[in-house]
Backbone:
């Protein structure tokens, strides 16, 4: 079992997608899978979250909808986003 702050393969793949999509100046491996993505933590803003949603939709062939009432939880951390992607991905 992974340590709480270590990434599994799915989280690592998603972290790499986020770094590439947003052209971040940190390595994917430096992202704490339990840290907040939005504002504190990774420090992303709403435009960044939209970019991530678009990149995830293209790569994993399912739609992350802006009107989903669960978005706060989904985007609360890399780990939560990864779990959501694994449940809904079609590719």
Residues:
């Amino acid at each position: 079992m992974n340590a709480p702050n270590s990434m599994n393969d799915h989280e690592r793949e998603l972290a790499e997608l986020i770094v590439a999509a947003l052209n971040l100046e940190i390595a994917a491996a430096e992202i704490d899978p339990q840290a907040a993505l939005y504002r504190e933590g990774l420090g992303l803003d709403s435009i960044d979250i939209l970019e991530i949603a678009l990149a995830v939709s293209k790569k994993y062939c399912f739609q992350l909808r802006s009107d989903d009432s669960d978005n706060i939880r989904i985007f609360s951390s890399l780990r939560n986003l990864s779990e959501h992607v694994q449940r809904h991905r079609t590719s």
The longest helix spans residues 46-60. The chain has a mean pLDDT of 92. DSSP finds four helices and no strands in the chain.
